[in-house]
Design brief:
2 domains; binds zinc ion; mainly alpha; elongated
């Protein structure tokens, strides 16, 4: 941090590392958003536990919230789903390839054994 002789001084936001001019000495965050984010990072476990409890007590409200979110972010959801499916597809292909490789090696080995037996 650089201390200026003027009233306002430059400071670095703790969360997003942005440099901002401010008049307050004890300021840590550049914006209310960063303040909230810092709070979340500090009390993450508590907040997550509270959210879980709330979801258990209000399953209908949670479902409604998710429905509303889906209405708003349908594209985002589709994108994430496509990504997931692509991953699954690749995994399946890898599995089938591994199986094919195994079959191939087994065949080769059996051929070798057969040749030895024949000789
Ligand atoms: Zn910030």
């Amino acid at each position: 941090m650089i201390y200026e002789p003027k009233k306002s001084r430059r400071m670095k936001c703790v969360v997003c590392r942005k440099t901002v001019w401010t008049k307050r000495k004890d300021r840590l965050y550049c914006s209310a958003k960063c303040c909230l984010r810092a709070k979340y990072i500090k009390h993450k476990d508590k907040i997550l536990a509270r959210n879980k409890k709330w979801i258990k007590n209000h399953p209908e409200k949670n479902a409604e919230y998710h429905r509303n979110w889906l209405k708003k972010n349908r594209k985002k959801w589709n994108k994430s789903q496509a990504k997931y499916q692509r991953k699954k597809y690749h995994k399946d292909i890898e599995k089938s390839r591994a199986k094919g490789r195994e079959m191939y090696y087994k065949l080769k080995e059996s051929e070798k054994n057969g040749n030895k037996k024949n000789k």
